[in-house]
Amino acid sequence: MPKNAPYGDNRRIGMVQERSQAFNPITKQWVKRNSNTGHFMDVKQDGTPFKGVRKEK
Hints:
- Residues 38-57 are annotated as: Disordered.
- By secondary structure, this protein is mainly beta.
- The chain has strands spanning 19-24, 29-34, 40-44, 54-55.
């Protein structure tokens, strides 16, 4: 479970569980997906990876 303490410093300690991200080379964007179901959750529009989400190989 990721922790958020100490509070107020705008960062999380640890990775977000049960999520991963992969790069789509066609659209040149990162796609976040649920690791349990495999459903795509979100697409990052600016081309940079999501923070705190592990990358798939």
